[in-house]
Fold this sequence. Notes:
Blueprint: H1 3-51, H2 55-61, H3 68-72
Amino acid sequence: xxxxxxxxxxxxxxxxxxxxxxxxxxxxxxxxxxxxxxxxxxxxxxxxxxxxxxxxxxxxxxxxxxxxxxxxxxxxxxx
Length: 79
């Protein structure tokens, strides 16, 4: 093999490494985004579930109707 073919192989390896690195970064971003979407979906379902509870159960838990969102979101209060 000549020196030229080695240098072409090295360039191809760098390109493959860059593509693999980009792909792994893209996949990690997609996983993070989908987990955030699933977490928000679960919060909304939990809010709906707690809103359906009768008042005496909410009193036993120690929250009022106005505090449901804050209780479900752990004090962050996002809806």
